[in-house]
Amino acid sequence: MGYFICNEKPKETEEIIARNIPVDLRETAICMESFGGYKAYAAPKEGTDQLKGIFVDKIKEFSGKFKR
């Protein structure tokens, strides 16, 4: 099992994970990661970069851990 979050404050990822994912699930997870994000009021507008604030490299790394 792997867990990911999308959050606007990547420096707080560890704290957010600790507050929201129980210890027993964290201990058995293959990986946990933040894919970044943006504030709700700063969501990308149509016609702009829809991945602004999203860490695509972290998504690729995360998904790579589940390939056989």
Give a written overview of the molecule.
By secondary structure, this protein is of the alpha+beta class. It has three helices and two strands; from the N terminus they run E-H-H-E-H. The chain has helices spanning 13-20, 23-28, 56-64, and strands at 2-5, 31-34. It has a two-stranded parallel ribbon.
Summarize the structure.
With 68 residues, the protein is α+β, with helices and mostly antiparallel strands.
pLDDT under 50 segments (min length 5)? none
Main sheet characteristics: 2 strands, parallel
The strand count comes to: 2
Please state roughly what percent of the residues sit in beta strands, choosing from under 5%, 5-15%, 15-25%, 25-35%, 35-45% or over 45%. 5-15%
What is the CA–CA distance across the termini? 14 Å
Query: What's the rounded overall pLDDT mean?
Result: 89
Give helix % range: 25-40%
Dominant shape: flat
Radius of gyration: 13 Å
Give me the secondary-structure category: alpha+beta
N to C succession of SSEs: EHHEH
Specify the number of helices: 3
Widest sheet: strand order?
1-2
